[in-house]
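Deliverable D5.2: sample structural annotation.
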Amino acid sequence: MTDDLKLNMDAYLPLRDVVFHTLREAILKEDLKPGERLMEQQLALKLGVSRTPIREAIRMLEQEGLAITVPRKGAEVAHMTLKDMEDVLQIREALEDLAVRIACQKINDEQIQKLRDSAIKFEKLAASGDVKRLAECDVEFHDVVYEAADNPKLMALLNNLREQLYRYRVEYLKNPEVYPVLIKEHEEIVQALAEHNVEMATGYIHVHVANQEVAVKEIIERQNQ
């Protein structure tokens, strides 16, 4: 276990969420590596907290697919697998297609402007290479589309899936070579929605998800070699 693990305190979050964000960041930065044990007592001592928020944070990590509990062994950092990635992105593609179809009919000028602002923000952030902020901005972009669909039940499904997607989104964004592609895809999606062109918008969304799948598949294959 890394010696650099420190609690990232936030006065506005419950302790379990602070522990969760600290561990999640450590996993995504690979300070905690796939297969590494997440021992409650050891983590509690290192972070200066009790075992209860550690246990709760590990459950949250399991919900995101970042940790798994192995029988008779305990919790450990999950390996990324092609099957898990394909399953998650397959569901995402279907739900995003539905969200875009509905949004094409309902989206208003204010939401189109929010999409444009988010796309511009992403382009500006790309120069910084700040993967965490880029991931947050990409989430923000898609959230505007979901908001425009105005379907709370669909939004709930997408929000739940977003947690499982986070690791793959971050891995994708670690490669600066994909930034120009993402910027172009965001622009195309905004334009199609602004024109209320369902066929074009859904086509762009499918390409958007497919490009991520190809890139992350290559990453997983390299890691498993």
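Annotation notes: The chain has a mean pLDDT of 91. Strands lie at 67-70, 74-77.
The annotation will be released with the project's public dataset once the embargo ends.
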